[in-house]
Amino acid sequence: MNVLTWLIPISLLLGGLGLAGFLYTLRSRQYEDPKGDAQRILDDRYDDRPR
Amino acid sequence: MTAMACPGCAAAPTGPAPQAVAGDVLLSLPHIHCVSCIRGVETALAARPDVRDVRVNLTLKRAMVRTEASADSLAETLVGAGIEAYPLDVAALSAEGADKAGRELLMRLAVAGFAMMNVMLLSVAVWSGAAEATRDLFHWISAAIAIPASLFCGAPFFASAWGALRAGRMNMDVPIALAIVLALGTSLYETWHSGHHAYFDAAITLCFFLLIGRYLDLRARSAARSAAQELTALEVPVATRVTGETVPLAQIAVGDALLVRPGARMPVDGTIRRGASELDRSLLTGEAEPQAATSGDAVHAGEVNLTGPLEVTATAVGRDSSLHRLADLVALAEAGRARHTPLADKAAALYAPGVHILSALSFMGWILWTGDLRLALNIAAAVLIITCPCALGLAVPAVTAAASGRLYRAGLLVKSATALERLAEVDTVVFDKTGTLTAGTPRVTGWQKLHKDAASVAKGLGAASDHPLAQAIRAEEGPVAQITALREVPGSGVEGLWQGTPVRMGRASWIGAEPVEGLATYLQVGTATPQPIRFTDNLRAGAAELVQTLQARGLRVLMLSGDTTPAVNALAIELGIAEAEANLRPEEKASRMAALAGQGAKVLMVGDGLNDTAALAAAHVSIAPASALEAARAASDMVLTHASLMPVAGALEIAGKATRRISENFTIATVYNVVAVPLAALGLCTPLVAALAMSGSSLTVVLNALRITR
């Protein structure tokens, strides 16, 4: 069972990475315009200043 | 009920925006829908040298432009490129607050979700039989995750519960906060003494489900609020000085001379200095017939100038204007409105004390029975967790979110959180006439009976004026006579020469005609006897069907109008409304509401005018069409964005369904409790049972709420 001392921190770290990623997208306001983002990806021009 | 906004701000002409300072400009783009629209807007605006930056938001259908140019000129650029665009008043949009609250809730929700999943996994290991040191280790790790996470995620509940307790009240958040704290406390104590049961998973799951409820609630209401704000932001409050300078309304002082162009609204109360015209008072008084006005006459903020330019000396501005005095009436009416207790609060009033008593009873019972403080405390915590209003907390917001979403698509913005519950109780519907049941645009009656020449002359004369009656005549079929020396006499009518004969069309007093009953204009060819051309107000789309549908459902339908008796009676007969009253002043409308409420009726008021605002505020629940003045929209619980009135019938139906779903949800939550509470009080409720009961009841409630979207 000693492996648990490694596995639990690792799993928490990985989950925490996911959480941090979500909080980053939230803070950088990536949910302001979901419809617009879904449409913009269809444009073949490069969006050089994405927000 | 939203706070009453300054109605004076709504009275200005919806004309050009004041010169924008360098900075952000918002444009409303109601018809964009795809990537090529986005590109079109962005390239058209970016091509201007004075535009520094432009970004379209498709979700909100807005463009945010960083520029020195005025919002007006930007909108013109877009209209030139074939894209419909309107400038928005940045000050009227305060979406930032709701936005921030939404992001904060979402952050707490994410943290709660993360913590819940991890603690759940550890708990599964314990439930599957981990023992001794392993179990204690898992409990300690769970505690390390769950305690900080619950305290952080539960902060909104703690704050609300503390506020309620300090005010000596009970709300749903008191048992929630107590359950979280007690669950964490006893579990920590158990873990310290290497006990078997810890409720860390329950505490954090509780936060997670309840936060979902909060978030749904906030989302549904902020969507409606921002749409209502956008309607307001489209009306920029400005006034034009006699010098032609356009200034914000706030800069106008008493004694200033203002120019009011035909088609614009009076920004202030005043007297006419120069000019003659006709005034449309329908939004203030409900009268459909325009009134003549000439120099020396008094005008009131909110009236629409129809035919000639008027120079007005301001006699009252802002707070002193007649518009604002109506606002005081609204405040009074609101104070008199019977307080509605939301279903959730009613449930909480029954539930919260019950939960605490049950928990306290089982604590006392066990301590008397066994004398074991630790066991008794454990069981009291289990009872609190099991009864915790997870499902109850979701019962109302899940349903209102689903129902408001459906109404939003049908064309109704629900501004007030309890509007749906109140709408479901309605048994009486009161309509305003002008602008609500009627579209406010007149239509000629008996056009076919008019002589061919007279009809063509009328159409020829009508071309000279933008008066609503002239527009109605222009809209009729038939040839147009050649009229020479055509000229509009503001406030009176139009005149000209037809085949050498003088022809005139206008007010009875000007032509010298015998006035007929109802809305009419008079046509005179040469020296012949003047003949009337009669008009009737166009019905708003869906008005007749709506009245029929409501009556078929057994609702009492009334019409209260400020218009003249003949016009009101004619419409009442056309629509089959038995109870109609005319010539009502705004305060009389409000007192009718109070009288109806006194008879025990739950009144839905549908109205658009300033004379309706007090009645809208006094009614049990109220709806204003989007064409209404800002003051009327602010005073009502819902805003109808469709041109047709029919969505109102659908709204009543959905509101009824929503209330049924809410009570079903309460029943479901209660049944879960009735089954689980005895188990908990007998000490049979393990953390596994608690987790199952909580998730099970919450999911059932949400699924039941979602049925409404179909």
Question: Average pLDDT across residues of chain B?
Answer: 80
For the biggest sheet of chain B, the summary is: 7 strands, mixed
Sketch the major β-sheet of chain A. none
User: Average pLDDT across residues of chain A?
Assistant: 83
Structure report:
The complex is a heterodimer of chains A (51) and B (710). Chain A is mainly α and 51 residues long. Chain A has two helices and no strands. The mean pLDDT of chain A is 83. By secondary structure, chain B is an alpha+beta fold. Chain B has a seven-stranded mixed beta sheet, with helices on both faces. In chain B, strands 16-21-20-19-18-17 form a six-stranded antiparallel beta sheet. In chain B, strands 2-3-1-4 form a four-stranded antiparallel beta sheet. The longest helix of chain B has 35 residues, at 647-681. Chain B is elongated and about 115 Å long. The model of chain B is unreliable at 1-22 (pLDDT under 50). Chains A and B meet through helix 1 and helix 2 of A and helix 1, strand 2, helix 3 and helix 4 of B.
Features:
heterodimer; A: 51 residues; mainly alpha; B: 710 residues; alpha+beta; seven-stranded mixed beta sheet; six-stranded antiparallel beta sheet; 51% helix; disordered N terminus
Task: Briefly say what this structure is.
The complex is a heterodimer of chains A (51) and B (710). Chain A is mainly α. Chain A has helices at residues 4-27, 34-40.
What are the SSEs and their pairings?
The complex is a heterodimer of chains A (51) and B (710).
Chain A: H1 4-27, H2 34-40
Chain B: E1 23-28, H1 35-46, E2 51-57, E3 62-67, H2 71-80, E4 86-88, H3 95-127, H4 132-153, H5 155-166, H6 173-192, H7 200-233, E5 238-240, E6 246-248, E7 257-260, E8 269-274, E9 276-280, H8 282-285, E10 291-294, E11 298-299, E12 304-305, E13 310-316, H9 322-336, H10 343-370, H11 373-387, H12 390-410, E14 412-414, H13 419-424, E15 428-431, H14 433-437, E16 438-445, H15 452-462, H16 468-474, E17 484-489, E18 493-498, E19 501-506, H17 508-511, E20 520-525, E21 531-539, H18 543-552, E22 556-560, H19 565-575, E23 579-581, H20 586-598, E24 603-606, H21 613-618, E25 621-625, H22 630-635, E26 638-640, H23 647-681, H24 687-706
Parallel strand pairs in B: 15-22, 15-24, 22-23, 24-25, 25-26
Antiparallel strand pairs in B: 1-3, 1-4, 2-3, 5-6, 7-13, 8-11, 8-13, 9-10, 9-12, 14-26, 16-21, 17-18, 18-19, 19-20, 20-21
Helix pairs in contact in B: 3-4, 3-7, 4-6, 4-7, 5-6, 6-7, 6-11, 7-12, 7-24, 9-20, 10-11, 11-23, 12-23, 12-24, 15-16, 23-24
